[in-house]
């Protein structure tokens, strides 16, 4: 499959130009593009510039936006009105407010209503953890995942992410509860690649390997009934973030941050030292034959980001051409 290598500067220029063409302001385009570039640097090709193609096709991009505001607030919490802004902008503001509240009170709980597409959870949580806080982030989404035993989607891909402050880099775990990400489905519809068995179903609920047919039907949960149960719990958490406020549907987008200072439980520096020791203990365990390293979540992403900042990122030629066409 033909690819093209782009530097960080080339990605930024292409992303910002494409996003302003679909209606974002120059400042908004920069915020979104920086997020997308970081995703691609960390090795998540589907979550990089190809996401602009999905944004361009989303009906929300053509509807009016309003300033992000606060619907309800306490000293430790806030429910935001995302103003129909794409989540890369509205959810980032939610993370910033959660950090502000955690600095002031030790705890910050923030939900964001009236928004869509949230990007990569670890992008927000890395900012939270590097500010010295523990972050838990859940996102209940619009129907893309078919519950176990059903034939139609009723859950989002519903990611769960946890970040903890640690030196030299935060510990971060970020997972979706679908068998794969919806971004990967969209990317494979553009490239024509298929999926292995067990990923998704078509519009009639029948198993399929076709990305285009899965886009019409839905993904399956990871891990069978356990993945379904976790996904449903995250969907329910989205109600706390005001998921039903935008369109009156219980099955809608609901990002939620729970952020707190580890110092409300144990001294922050002690916690960071103990976490570093725990990670070192895990990595030092005897390994199975052929295993060269016990890798910690996000360790690969940190390494690849540093490497790709110098080498650039490969982008599918067909995706590049479609972005240029915008």
Description:
This protein has 326 residues and is α+β, with helices and mostly antiparallel strands. The protein has two domains: 1-57 and 295-326, Hypothetical Oxidoreductase Yiak, Chain: A, domain 1 (Orthogonal Bundle); 69-178 and 221-284, Ribosomal Protein S8, Chain: A, domain 1. The protein has helices spanning 8-21, 26-41, 50-57, 87-105, 121-130, 182-191, 211-216, 225-240, 268-283, 299-311, 317-325, and strands spanning 3-6, 69-74, 77-86, 107-116, 134-140, 160-164, 171-175, 200-201, 207-208, 218-219, 254-260, 313-316. Strands 2-3-4-11-5-6-7 form a seven-stranded mixed beta sheet. The mean pLDDT is 95.
Search tags:
326 residues, alpha+beta, Hypothetical Oxidoreductase Yiak, Chain: A, domain 1, seven-stranded mixed beta sheet, three-stranded antiparallel beta sheet, 11 helices
Strand order of the largest sheet: 2-3-4-11-5-6-7
> Helix/strand/pairing class, anyone?
alpha+beta
The CATH superfamily of the largest domain bears the name Malate/L-lactate/L-sulpholactate dehydrogenase, NADPH binding domain
Number of helices: 11
Biggest sheet features? 7 strands, mixed
Poorly predicted regions: none
Mean pLDDT: 95
The proportion of residues forming helix, as a percent range, comes to: 40-55%
Shape: globular
CATH class of the largest domain: Alpha Beta
Whole-Å distance between the termini? Answer: 22 Å
What letter string, H or E per element, gives the SSE order? EHHHEEHEHEEEHEEHEHEHHEH
Q: Count every beta strand, where a strand is a DSSP E run of 2 or more residues.
A: 12
* CATH level-3 fold name of the largest domain: Ribosomal Protein S8, Chain: A, domain 1
């Amino acid at each position: 499959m033909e690819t093209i290598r782009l530097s960080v500067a080339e990605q930024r220029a292409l992303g910002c130009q494409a996003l302003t063409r679909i209606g974002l302001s120059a400042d908004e385009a920069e915020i979104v593009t920086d997020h997308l570039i970081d995703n691609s640097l960390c090795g998540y090709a589907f979550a990089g510039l190809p996401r602009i193609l999905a944004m361009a096709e989303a009906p929300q991009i053509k509807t009016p936006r309003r300033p992000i505001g606060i619907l309800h607030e306490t000293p430790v919490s806030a429910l935001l009105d995302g103003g129909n802004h794409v989540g890369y902008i509205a959810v980032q503001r939610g993370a910033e407010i959660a950090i502000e509240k955690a600095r002031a009170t030790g705890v910050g709980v923030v939900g964001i209503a009236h928004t869509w597409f949230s990007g990569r959870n670890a992008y927000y949580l890395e900012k939270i953890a590097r500010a010295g806080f523990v972050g838990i982030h859940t996102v209940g989404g619009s129907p893309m995942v078919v519950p176990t035993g059903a034939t139609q989607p009723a859950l989002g891909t519903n990611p769960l992410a946890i970040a903890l402050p640690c030196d030299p880099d935060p510990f971060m775990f970020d997972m979706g509860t679908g068998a794969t990400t919806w971004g990967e489905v969209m990317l494979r519809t553009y490239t024509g690649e298929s999926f292995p068995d067990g990923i998704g179903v078509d519009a009639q609920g029948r198993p399929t390997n076709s990305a285009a047919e899965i886009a019409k039907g839905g993904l399956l949960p990871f891990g069978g009934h356990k993945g379904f149960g976790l996904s449903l719990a995250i969907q329910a958490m989205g109600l706390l973030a005001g998921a039903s406020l935008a369109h009156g549907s219980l099955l809608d987008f609901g990002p939620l941050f729970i952020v707190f200072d580890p110092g409300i439980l144990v001294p922050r520096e002690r916690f960071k030292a103990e976490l570093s020791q725990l990670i070192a203990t895990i990595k030092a365990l005897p390994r199975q034959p052929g295993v060269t390293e016990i890798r910690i979540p996000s360790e690969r992403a940190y390494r690849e980001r540093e490497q790709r900042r110098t080498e650039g990122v490969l982008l599918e030629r067909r995706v590049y051409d479609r972005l240029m066409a915008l």
